[in-house]
Amino acid sequence: MPGSPITSSARGVFAIAPTPFTPDGAVDTTSLDRLTDFYTASGVTGITVLGQLGEAPKLAHDEAVAIAARVVRRVQVPVVVGVSAPGFAAMRSLTAAVMDAGAAGVMIAPPNTLRTDDQITAYYRNAAQAIGPDVPFVIQDYPLTFSVVMTPKVIRAIVAENPGCVMLKHEDWPGLEKISALRGFERDGSMRRLSILCGNGGLFLDFETERGADGAMTGYCFPDMLVELVELAARGEREAAHDLFDAHLPLLRYEQQPGVGLAVRKYVFARRGILDHEAQRAPAATLSAAARAEVDLLLERLARRDGRARLSPLAR
Amino acid sequence: MPGSPITSSARGVFAIAPTPFTPDGAVDTTSLDRLTDFYTASGVTGITVLGQLGEAPKLAHDEAVAIAARVVRRVQVPVVVGVSAPGFAAMRSLTAAVMDAGAAGVMIAPPNTLRTDDQITAYYRNAAQAIGPDVPFVIQDYPLTFSVVMTPKVIRAIVAENPGCVMLKHEDWPGLEKISALRGFERDGSMRRLSILCGNGGLFLDFETERGADGAMTGYCFPDMLVELVELAARGEREAAHDLFDAHLPLLRYEQQPGVGLAVRKYVFARRGILDHEAQRAPAATLSAAARAEVDLLLERLARRDGRARLSPLAR
Amino acid sequence: MPGSPITSSARGVFAIAPTPFTPDGAVDTTSLDRLTDFYTASGVTGITVLGQLGEAPKLAHDEAVAIAARVVRRVQVPVVVGVSAPGFAAMRSLTAAVMDAGAAGVMIAPPNTLRTDDQITAYYRNAAQAIGPDVPFVIQDYPLTFSVVMTPKVIRAIVAENPGCVMLKHEDWPGLEKISALRGFERDGSMRRLSILCGNGGLFLDFETERGADGAMTGYCFPDMLVELVELAARGEREAAHDLFDAHLPLLRYEQQPGVGLAVRKYVFARRGILDHEAQRAPAATLSAAARAEVDLLLERLARRDGRARLSPLAR
Amino acid sequence: MPGSPITSSARGVFAIAPTPFTPDGAVDTTSLDRLTDFYTASGVTGITVLGQLGEAPKLAHDEAVAIAARVVRRVQVPVVVGVSAPGFAAMRSLTAAVMDAGAAGVMIAPPNTLRTDDQITAYYRNAAQAIGPDVPFVIQDYPLTFSVVMTPKVIRAIVAENPGCVMLKHEDWPGLEKISALRGFERDGSMRRLSILCGNGGLFLDFETERGADGAMTGYCFPDMLVELVELAARGEREAAHDLFDAHLPLLRYEQQPGVGLAVRKYVFARRGILDHEAQRAPAATLSAAARAEVDLLLERLARRDGRARLSPLAR
User: How far is C23 from chain B (nearest CA, A)?
Assistant: First the structure.
């Protein structure tokens, strides 16, 4: 049963799901189901599939739709689907298919060729037209990866022009002032409310919630911690929130490295018993023995402060 | 009947075909057939569909395959299909479909995130593996658009590693010395022969043939002129070749503008009676009235030196 | 005697001067003087020194000031000096020195890290403050080289904010519609008049004048042709203007290649007897024997239509 | 008294010094001296001035030389000077001036226009020639800021070609495997020893030392912590090193934000009583009240684990 469409009042944690593969490159549906159930048990308020770290470009159209549909069927929470594509034809057809399958909305990243403010707003206008007026969508604002810089004013312009735009996946860096600026626009009445969920691996989530973010949309390998952190912040338990965050920061920072981060994430999910395999489809970054040992050390140190990190070693 | 696979001995002119659309955005198969026949009548030695200027990203997978198949069925010459994609899954499935339909090979542009020599060679290694060892492919070397700079040594490395790499769509800028360097590699035995067909709108085709290029792969709106030019150059009629080229250069330069170039091309094809419509799918650059008048003037001036440019005005 | 400050009513041709060097890398003042006199004799209405193709970054501060001062002393026309720099301290000190020496204004290119509209306008605001309110300046809008894309609206904002901004070196590509848009802003009263001089090697100068440009600011090796062309256009002798332009286009296009273009320019200036040496300071692009022969052929062919290209070969 | 030239056996911590300014924009020599003395007292093994975060582009040539000379005269340890410049003329003259003043070497970052391996190695070859064979230099490898990606093989090639290249400021991200690769080159005899000091704000210093780095060259506002950390790691006190690092990570991560990071650094140095002013020259990023409060909280939390962070509030 699909969740209802995402709205601008969404809060909490939307987990960015990696796509599990078997070592021979097939989609590992057993692990996918286990991962989905784990997210539910962790208390996430939504799941995002086929994002940047979901290896979306390595999936054929039918595989992508099947994954989205499978997750949708298994959960009560809304499922957002990444539909970024080099052209609007592919974006339109993927959006239609996943919305049919019960997705709650789609996420759209800008192509890395955009430069001017007008190019960015025009892109989202065209994209919104391509997916259709009834599909709620998420702006993915990730300059580090996409090389597209959106000022708060540009985001406001996109929101104003497109009723379907209900959420921002905020991962600008630095980004704290951007959250304050957007919430300021809401307060001064120049922009309607936008759900702001933060990405960037969670690296600034301790302060992002304090600045007004509604939560997180990221794939850190302890989504259960993210949920707890956002709840602590919502209840105003500031010290406890920072203590929890700081305990995880060494690992979180390690996982947030570009390129190798997904391998860390899959490794920890394997150690947590959620994924059967760490496999990625080619081209894949892999972890060296040294890197594995570093992650093991980080988990071991984390376990002293958070029992969730007390894990058995991987059988080899 | 499909042509045989492209090989490293390919010569002449491979026309880059625009994709004709009707004003409501459907693929205009009538115009596509007329365009295909026009290419045949122009004496091209090959046709390339779904390239950068074929609006490939605006086509759904099935549309793309249908276009390639339709052109293949109608001609005797080899048809190359652009299969550049953000991921190898889409590249693989599109390649399989068009090769099944009788394509003679595929063309692969590098994603604009590649920087180092090793990243570029790794990309083509992975791409070659994705499409399969039996599919001949063309490297598209177009730094102006893709921001990826391939030195002659990098191209040599790609050729050495991948038996399927038989052709270079050369559109580096400046690029004349690159042709000389690659032909030098062949002479000194460090690289096997590569078919080099030049793009970049033909802006340096007068000298590219003299430097050793085998011809052109570009979409200039007078492919019949390109064919004649390459033949003149091949017969050593240098003065005649330059005279012909210089007559076309003012228009050719105008058409080679990024962004607006495709609109010019479709406009002239419409004026030549080959396309029924100038329509592009969104997002589309359009010609202002001033730009149309400029193209009209260029055609009028060209017509004094080349009768092929003597065209009736478009009925409005 | 310095010319008076540049104003927004400037017209004609501002020649972009290359910096002449001797083979051992010293500034070649004899050639510089001869070049300056040649510009005067060619009828230019201004000279620009220390631009992108003036090898400005290869000059020490004192050398740069000395070159600017030497040219200023020798001519009656205004001299614009390129002062683009990675920081405002260097821009301020170079501006102060050359304005003291009698320069008529300065030219400022944006650093290639700027992305958003606000970043661009902020940059010019800071730059204008750094050089001081009394120094007239030229915006250099050259996205191909600087990767900074300025919309007409951004240029209008810069003009509105900075009284010193009186001229645009227009070299966007494609750029014809931009000229029309800016002149439209003037007509609708939303922007004060701006002198628009076109660069980009002159590749579209035939139509740029017709769109409303005031002339050219570029370094093509036949500035005397540019002057004649702009005058023909100003007198409405359209056919003659196009005939002259088309005759030069094959060479002009060859010279306009990035990287190697300056070597072509210096080679032709040497063949014209204006520069004693083709030398560039390191890092320098040089002409291969094949490239020299190509330029020779282009000159020979041009000479049939323009006697100014009838040149003796270089003594070797 | 200047220290002796830097060599490939350099170890420990080279502090990247910010440049102190007074609120009216003058160089604040009182604070500069106090900062220099603080570095000495902290046990640094070197100081780097005029780096990326030393606001070097905002300094006139004479100011830059004066700052370098002042620091050199005050310390026993080697002083490295950033001489990155858009052209070799400025690099040469700044290098000559600071080496005369007793600098121990210079640091060179690549211009952000470089793409291919050959372009990068050619750049360092030309740079080494410009500064002269007797000047030891540091490669700054910071792709996040400079957009230039150097593979380990390219670094090896630069080291092989240039005897003066003795040190790498390592700040690739991710970068741990790069350290391992370079140390591997040394072990297999394919590269001579290189001093590797890590930057990137110190964000991975816990593991970088374990991978074989010789220490840090970064500007974190607790250089005394960096010195202690590198010493703990050198003595094999792994747990203590990680404990110290983890305690600082929340603040260190906050300071490592692009753009705003320097403001954080100057603010903390002001709170530590080392700088009299937080002022930057324009263009400057400033801290909002919210950001100040965040830094204050991070310091307060840090103070529970490291007494060095127990600071009085700034008088206002």
Answer: 24
Instruction: Give the 3-state secondary structure of residue B234.
Output: helix
Q: Considering only CB atoms, which chain A residues are within 8 Å of C150? A: 116
Q: Which amino acid is at B82?
A: G
Counted residue by residue, chain B has a size of 316
Say yes or no for a CB contact (<8 Å) between A118 and C150.
no
Q: Which chains touch A (3 or more CB pairs under 8 A)?
A: B, C, D
Distance CA A298, CA D263 (A): 30
- CATH 3.20.20.70, domain D12-241, yes or no: yes
Chain C residues near residue D125 by CB distance under 8 angstroms: none
Q: Is residue B217 part of an annotated ligand binding site?
A: yes
Domain ranges of chain D: 12-241
The pTM of the whole model exceeds 0.90 = yes
- Dihedral angle over CA of A260, A262, A267, A271, nearest 10: 140
Residue in the structure block whose two tokens are 């302890």: A222
The minimal CB distance from C87 to the residues D57, D92, D129 is found for D57
* Residue in B closest to D114 by C-alpha: B115
Cβ of C126 and D61 within 8 Å?
no
ipTM score of complex = 0.97
The tens-digit pLDDT sequence of chain C (316 residues) is 455 899 999 999 999 999 999 999 999 999 999 999 999 999 999 999 999 889 999 999 999 999 999 999 999 999 999 999 888 999 999 999 999 999 999 999 999 999 999 999 999 999 999 999 999 999 999 999 888 999 999 999 999 999 999 999 999 999 999 999 999 999 999 999 999 999 999 999 999 999 999 999 999 999 999 999 999 999 999 999 999 999 999 999 999 999 899 999 999 999 999 999 999 998 888 999 999 999 999 999 999 999 999 998 876 5
Residue C3's alpha-carbon distances to C6, C44, C71, D284, in angstroms, are 8, 13, 11, 36
CA atoms within 13 A of residue C89's CA, in its CB half-sphere: 15
Choose the closest CB to D149 out of B115, B148, B151. B115
Q: What angle, 0 to 180 degrees and rounded to 10, lies between the N-to-C axes of helices A261-271 and A238-255?
A: 110
